[in-house]
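Researcher: Here's a chain I'd like modeled. Treat it as a single chain, no partners, no ligands.
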Amino acid sequence: MSSKKKLPEIVTAKGIAVYPKLNEPDTKYDKDGVYEVKLTFEDPNEPQVQAMVARIERERDAYFDAKVADLKAEGKGAAAKQLKKADILKPELDRETGDETGRYYIKAKMKASGTRPDGKPWTQQPTYFSASGSKLNNPPRIGGGSVLKLGVALSPYVIESSKEVGVTLRLRAVQIISLVTGGQRSFESYGFSAEEGDEIEDCEFDASSAEGSDAADDEDDDL
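Model: Modeled as a single isolated chain. Structure tokens:
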């Protein structure tokens, strides 16, 4: 029987996916591949976001306290004082300007493959669900702007170089609340908000072709 401690699992608050690698693993920096996603939140004070952060902070704080106690027991009080707690939510930065966007994010990831101690290879991928809870064995392409919830395991860590104590979110499952596929972006991701005005529906014909016809008619009138 394995003595490895089972990691606690939670479901995140609903957020907007940025640069998700959820359909195929990313192998740019890891040859074994990694599934990963940055999940952003418009309002860090929203109750579900606060509840999520508080739960992760409890795991971080318990690990922090245990590390401090261990170091003190070893007579390393100075090292214990150097430990610091990592923020759970981080401010999102614009990739071009480096300025804060006003949104906050968490990151979750899952290693796609590897080799066991006995030499046998293994592979894994997240489990996918629809908004209603149906399991998706062949999920659609999940693009940036999709609204998701994530099932994650909480794995505390300490970085020896920076003395920072935090929590890695190990991806387990993905619930697709609202899907954006391909290169499409959502209404909100462009910075739009709802306004009062005309309710426009998609045309059942090619509007651009119709405009071209009008322009041609106008030219004929000038002859």
